[in-house]
Amino acid sequence: MQKMLSRKKTMNLDEIIDSIDQRPFYRCEDGALYCSPCEDILPQLPDKCVDLVLTSPPYNTGGHSAGYHPNSTTGDSFYDEYSDNLTNEEYIDFLAARITETIRVSRYAFWNMQMLSGNKEAILTLLYVFRKNLKDISIWRKQAVSQVQKGRTAKGFEFVFMFGNDDTMAFDYNEFPDNGYVPNVVEVYKTESFPSHHATFPVNLARYFVSYFTKEGDIVLDPFLGSGTTAVACKRLGRKFIGIEISEDYCCIAKDRIQAEQKGITVAELKRGQKVLF
Ligand SMILES: C[S@@+](CC[C@H](N)C(=O)[O-])C[C@H]1O[C@@H](n2cnc3c(N)ncnc32)[C@H](O)[C@@H]1O
After folding, report:
1. CATH (residue range 24-251)
2. Directed axis angle between helix 88-105 and helix 120-129, to 10°?
3. pTM (2 decimals)?
4. CB-ligand 1 contact for 260 (6 Å cutoff)
5. 3-class secondary structure per residue, 228-257
6. Which residues of the chain fall short of a pLDDT of 50?
7. Residue ranges per structural domain of the chain
8. What percentage of the chain has pLDDT greater than the value 70?
């Protein structure tokens, strides 16, 4: 398959960080992490400064874990800093403002969401509002299908809404495999979980989109970084990253994961301060 010409990169990571009037919570050679509400950082970012946004916002679960783990004990404190309990109107406004910003600052903005009663109206409304920007929808098929509530179907997939700046369904396919085959159904196992963060996505999900929709050295932004999964995938693939997360506890988890990745050790080994030799 004939490849498309490479895009001209206009800003590097340092220049983007210089444009933000806040010190990163954590900075390393290939990324930066901001401990802040993303609405404070996103407006400071220049147009089209990153290559991909990959993110998973709070799902408006009503303050409860809506089915990630059938035996969840997270109860009313699903997130650390954020109640996840907006009205439909508030949630639509919350997402619309941030989707608009991510489409402005990036070439592509991929939003992972699961449809629940607290966000169904928002998802359907936003898909209509952003219909010109919706390039495609991928589905992330889960191995562990979880029962949210009695009388409802057990949830076996989540959406990834793939927004861009034009109304064509075609992507830049420079990084697609030679046969051009990139299915929009992704099947991944979650291999890592963190007791203090109950809504992480699998690193191989992030890896899938980062590898096919960016090239080495490109910059990926996740404005709801959570435990840092997108940053970990970027490190594994030689991409740069900017993460934003409102909770300091989650920023600490993300920082540990990034540092462990950097050293080629596990988070447990990082914490023990030494690499375990087998
Ligand atoms: C679904 S989780 C993201 C999980 C992430 N993909 C991972 O694998 O760890 C959503 C995250 O958004 C954070 N959050 C909520 N409101 C925020 C805001 N206004 N700005 C930045 N982060 C926010 C929550 O603390 C939570 O960690």
Report:
1. 3.40.50.150
2. 40
3. 0.91
4. no
5. CHHHHHHHHHCCEEEEEECCHHHHHHHHHH
6. 1-2, 5-6, 66-76, 278
7. 24-251
8. 85
